[in-house]
Here is the input.
Amino acid sequence: MACAGCGTGVEGKPSGCKSNGGCSSGGCNRLNVFDWLSNIPLGDSLAPFDIIEVSFNNGSRKDFFRNVTKQMLDKGEMVTVEGVSGFDVGTVSLTGELVKLQMKKRRAEDTPELKKVLRRSSNDDLQRMADNKAREKEALIRSRALARNLGLEMKLAEVEIQADGRKATFFYTADDRVDFRELIKVYASEFRAKVEMRQIGARQEAGKVGGIGSCGRELCCSTWLSDFKSVNTTAARYQNLSINQAKLSGQCGRLKCCLNYELDTYLDALKGFPEDADTIETSGGVATLQKRDIFKCLMWYSYEGSNKQYPMTISRVKEIRQLNKQGIKPEELKAVEVVTTKPKETDLGFADVVGQISLKSLEKTVQKRKQKDKDRHKQHHKEKDKEQKQATAPKTEQQKPEQKTGKRPDSRQQEQRKPKQENRQPQQQGQGHQQPKQGRDQQPKQEQGAKQGQGQGQQQPKQDRRPPKHKPKPNNPNNNKQ
Here is the structure.
């Protein structure tokens, strides 16, 4: 939670900050300074230092103000201070005797013209500041568009609007000098405020934007680092780092500031190494220095035309160097055996814990997943069965009338011959008893065949569909005798 939304509580401490006004977490304010003199009591004759340090825009900018209200202000409180033709609202970042050291560090002088603290911020001041701060993002986008229309080669990093809205500060980066006289007029008419252009470097821009470094922590320039020192590639060479621009450069595009952190330690360690020992002479030839192992205090040499390297101690190298100055060449280098021993891994033993640990929540999810797979499988089979039934349905309907009539679809010639056989039946009654039955059984078949033939365009002879008046008597052998 930002300090702008904390407000003041009991005894002047921020009500929303859980660190009792100390902002020790670092999330509320950038570039924090730990006041290690806050708990040291002052004498009765000494009055507290009347200048305080106030930070604006979550620590992006800091300035010193004189506390003329004679009120005891704690770190983290919101105060209203003098601004450009108005007032501004900031957060108290440092009080007490430590402010003197900060002023000396930043070369700020204690003069009567120093701006003053007006009062503790009221709710109206905080509300007015919040309204103007909400305009900053839109103003940044609009200002970039206006600068692009004028064809200026500059990059706007941040826009800071004063709490009362009467002044706007534009922070930009540029490689060359920029003539922004026309741009100021456009900004003043667009934002209706006094315009101030302030050029910053690439490292300061990265500090304002913020981010996470390759080490996994928040950028140093956005948390605590305020003074930027020049970084050279020689710092990487002293630390035996490979000159890889992609790995050595930070988010600002410059060399990482952390290259200077351990440089002094490496320089102290390198004092023990001989400086004039780049080459040494032995009876086997001239050995050239390849690298220095600062942590193990070893120097690695190799002969010309050979890739094998010989590690040697610093004392042995100094000894050979003294012999070479006397014109003596030793027979061997007396290389040191470097043994890389890995730490022994403790055998924790094997324990079969199958069945002892039961994760019910995981088991339930697995069972639910299996049940869903089964349901999907069943639904898939049902859909397949339905499709097969629909595909076979018209075939069965065509086969049903064929089963009743007992006809074959390819027996058209037989159907045409059946009426002729009916006409001959009365003449052949004396041949046997099975012919009348055969005529009766074939009569409905012949009629159906005739109907089908007429539908297909075949001409069939007209048949007498009326049943005979007298049924033919069966042949009796006694009648023949008579």
In short: Residues 62 and 367 are 61 Å apart (CA to CA). The longest strand covers residues 86-94.
